[in-house]
Design a protein that fits this description.
With about 325 residues, this protein is α/β, with parallel strands linked by helices. About 40% of the residues lie in helices and about 15% in strands. Bound molecules: nicotinamide-adenine-dinucleotide (NAD).
């Protein structure tokens, strides 16, 4: 059994990973500054440190705890915030991972699992106007071999983090698995802020309000259920170094998602359309074939079932 230090373990995705690791009898240490995370998501079997990943204290904790593996999910997750304040975004998302990697190096951690982003790293599939990263449109679903063309500081930060992982692997032999998630949704997702359309719509509808769709609602995303993402993180414990897309390969637009949520709740409301968000990515959908071949992972919960399970959780929260 391994000792695993999870950053962001009081948050949406990583709190579920914490539970799955504990269920498999691993020892879990969670570090989180609770900026968006919630103590209620912590498992009583985890050891918890309320600490910032950019602080020097975190390196002391890694030295003291000596985990075999670090699973890194703490982040500034708001894409629009990364656009309005790229310095802040880079402080948390780039300097944060470097701080952890230095800690991992000092404590001789064996493996680093990283929550990367398939949506934000590839950028829009439209042809690149500069031609520098390929004049052709990206393939949909987009494979890992595609050129990366992030169009937000958040996406740049995730790609930069992967480059640092590569560097620490080559230089210091630190094994890593970067999981490039599609749009993750499910129980415990935070509806505050801008991320997580399923959680945001659900909260509005359950409060009897009308959700607002940005623009025409035809922007597509690849929605992957949190339970499937957790399974990828379990398989990553045994996997060799690599970068894998974790999505469903299916595109769903925002109008369809809103319709499915309204139906699952049994509401009579019709979502309204507001102004579009400038610079918002039009399409995003990733190819999970590599994860299937190498990790033996596959998405098992389709978007209809996933939304039903999420609705049930939000109702009984
Ligand atoms: N939700 C998605 O669709 C999605 C998609 C791709 C990648 N990701 C990545 O997955 C990870 C988890 O995202 P989530 O959706 O669960 O978000 P979340 O906000 O629920 O979780 C992030 C956690 O990190 C903590 N945190 C933030 N800054 C911190 C800091 N400086 N020091 C310590 N803790 C800090 C927060 O308190 C929170 O508990 C993030 O790295 C995110 O970029 C998420």
């Amino acid at each position: 059994m391994a000792k695993i230090l999870i950053t962001g373990g009081a948050g949406f995705i990583a709190s579920h990973i914490q539970d799955a690791y504990l269920e498999k009898d691993h020892r879990v240490v969670v570090v989180d500054n609770l900026v968006t995370g919630n103590k209620k998501n912590l498992n009583s079997k985890s050891k918890f440190y309320r600490v910032d990943i950019t602080s020097s204290e975190i390196r002391e904790i890694i030295k003291k705890e000596k985990p075999d593996i670090i699973n890194h999910h703490a982040a500034q997750i708001d894409v629009r915030k990364s656009v309005s304040d790229p310095v802040w975004d880079a402080k948390v998302n780039i300097l944060g991972i470097i701080n952890l990697l230095e800690g991992a190096k000092e404590a001789k951690v064996k493996k680093f699992i990283f929550a990367s982003s398939g949506g934000a790293i590839y950028g829009d599939p439209e042809p690149d106007p500069s031609g520098r990263y390929g004049a052709r449109a990206l393939k949909i679903p987009t494979p890992e071999t595609s050129p990366e063309r992030p169009i937000s500081p958040y996406g740049v930060g995730k790609l930069t983090s992967e480059k640092y992982l590569y560097y620490y692997n080559v230089q210091y032999g630190l094994e890593y698995v970067a999981l490039r998630y599609a749009n993750v949704y499910g129980p415990r997702q935070n509806s505050r802020g801008e991320a997580g359309v399923v959680a945001i719509f659900l909260d509005k509808l359950l409060a009897g309000e009308t959700p607002i769709i940005n623009g025409d609602g035809k922007q597509t995303r690849d929605y992957v259920y949190v339970g499937d993402v957790v399974k990828a993180n379990v398989l990553a414990l045994r996997a060799k170094t690599g970068v894998y897309n974790i999505g469903t390969g299916k595109e769903t637009d925002v109008n369809q998602v809103a319709g499915k949520i309204v139906k699952a709740i049994g509401a009579k409301v019709k979502p309204k359309h507001g102004p579009g968000k400038p610079g918002e990515q039009k399409r995003s959908c990733i190819d999970w074939g590599l994860a299937k071949r190498i990790l033996k992972w596959k998405p098992e919960i389709d978007v209809d079932q996933g939304i039903r399970e999420t609705v049930a959780w939000f109702k009984h929260r």
